[in-house]
Amino acid sequence: MRHIISLLMENEAGALSRVAGLFSARGYNIESLTVATTEDPTMSRMTIVTSGSDDVIEQINKQLNKLIEVVQVMDLTEGEHIERELMLVKVKAEGAAREEMKRMADIFRGRIIDVTDATYTIELTGSGTKLDNFLQAIDRSLILETVRTGASGIGRGKRILKL
Amino acid sequence: MELTGAEITIRCLQDEGVEYVFGYPGGAVLFIYDALFNQDKVKHILVRHEQAAVHAADGYARSTEKVGVALVTSGPGVTNAVTGIATAYMDSIPMVVISGQVPTGAIGEDAFQEVDTVGITRPCVKHNFLVKDVKDIASTIKKAFYLAKSGRPGPVLVDIPKDISIAKAEYDYPKNVSIRSYNPQVKADATAIKQAAELLLSAKRPVIYTGGGVILSDAAKPLTELVRGLGYPCVSTLMGLGGYPETDKLFLGMPGMHGTLEANLGMQNCDVLLAVGARFDDRVIGNVSHFNSVPRKIIHIDIDPASISKRVQVDVALVGDVKEVVKELQAALKSVKQKPDAAAQADWWKQIGEWRGRNSLAYKNSTEVIKPQYVVEKLYEITKGEAFVTSDVGQHQMWAAQYYKFDEPRRWINSGGLGTMGFGLPAAMGVKLAHPKADVACITGEGSIQMCIQELSTCKQFRLPIKVLSLNNRYLGMVRQWQEFFHGNRYAESYMDALPDFVKLAEAYGHVGIRVVNPADVEGAIKEAFARKNELVFMDFQTDPTENVFPMVPGGKGLSDIIMAEDL
Ligand SMILES: Cc1ncc(C[n+]2csc(CCOP(=O)(O)OP(=O)(O)O)c2C)c(N)n1
After folding, report:
1. Domain containing A137 — which CATH number?
2. Which alpha helices (H) appear in A39-152, and where do they start and end?
3. What is the pTM of this model?
4. What is the domain-level CATH number for residue A38?
């Protein structure tokens, strides 16, 4: 099953490689991994999307907790949570396609953040599936490049991951 | 007063009460060696290869309750040390390794003798640090020692760039350390303890399965009380030998690939298994699904939550320091009114008695050729079971584990998790330094001993009168045994050809060498060796090249698929 694991860790050089190294050394899947500093500059927060049997997920949680620099781990998928991903898509936008592309971006609540004579760059946030759906909805031959951040997640309401 | 980074490093070791540092100098650590030179509190043991420095620090740590310390230079110094670090990591040995690094400005430029030490060692250390500011040296070394010995112990590496060892700062060794992201649980959950006590007392066919965690947490005493209080059968893994007195009647021996029949069938057929600081390793329980095919309740005591339900699902998890938890469990057992079911226990012991009666460690001795088992038995007799015994890896290691009966913890020193050939001799150096008055024996094979043979020179320099018992079967015996059993007797590269004359070799290093060919001479040779109190004696026993280790649970098989010597 797919799991989204959030963790807080010391904002220190090499901490990311310990997490990445753990996943490769123990043969765990990583679908995506995002990391950035939190409002407390000494700490980073990471969201890892992974998959595995219950036993494997339990081990992943325990092994992450075992890393010295990891402060807290939470499996977001164990409760209510929100998941968002950001995607930037650069598309050809010429002639009739230009209007159509604008319309599709609107439908998906995307924003056009860069415009040239021949291209649009569209910013889109949402669940991974929504981003996939957008890419399927537009004419694939118009896609010039895409870049996605991978999922960031947060628990709903009182589910808080903070030291 | 300001000190250099190098001086601070040595002061930290002094303040940690470090007695010995095992190391080898080089460019990146020149200033640290200079600081060592200017003091005499911390003694440096110059090895002949960095792998040996780490194994020696490891042997020192295993035979004491202290942290082992090694010091190596950058680049090849570190890469040579990696085998030793991984060995310590697999067996959770508390150790601090200090390595030199190229100057901070040169890092990343493929400088002379630069390797990414933190990167290379990351998967085989508990934690590692690259010190980037001289002001951080003291706090980092403090953390390193704390991490190495607390929680589940392990090696911690501190990488110090050369310029940082030259830069100056005020020295202040922190008294305390706290790491917000690191709080190992020491005491187990009280309800789980109660549950465990009830489950134990309701057992009809109990087994207490003890591992290296008992040794590491110094829990032998409370464990022994617990086992005796219950009167339940006890087994110890290769790493746990000595945690419970082997000569006691409740002791069934070692379980696993070369364990006794009674230990293996006891583990397989019990209805309640209490695992104490053991991790259900593949060499211990064999095939997991075969092991799980018998329903049983499992209670698991371990300091590392990640060890629990890793390979085998457990019913009651007691996370905490083994020593603490065993004591808590003992107290809980006393408060439960229920007593063990005497009739069921009697039946269980009767069953165990039958397995025991098959005498799975019996071997046919010979008057023609030296049997390796016989050598170990004689060593046991002559040293009255009181020696510290280190070993290398192979058949001789298994025979040492099977035939030397350890009644006390920290006497049996071997590389269980990584299985590192070359461990025995350098580990024995660390043991001998820690216990100068005790008898220290290294049981080895002619293959393994050659992996760190250069340390005979270190033994000469530091006058370490270790007794080396080489069970020389002219084969990489353990490899040969597998080839005989599973590869149609095709002995690919397992014959040790062109062996040196070990007697002359020992003499060349300034030691005493004895070759023993005749079984009748075994006893005399060992006695002579131990009588030579101040000399290292290398005993080259020409043993039976065809001897195999029994019993054996073939890899991937279940514990009841055990093969006995008599089966063949
Ligand atoms: C560094 C290392 N390389 C290879 C092995 C694989 N191996 C395990 S046992 C063994 C044979 C050991 O031979 P020897 O030391 O002569 O001992 P014996 O088995 O004959 O008692 C080998 C090669 C190992 N454990 N360690």
Report:
1. 3.30.70.1150
2. 54-66, 96-107, 128-137
3. 0.97
4. 3.30.70.260
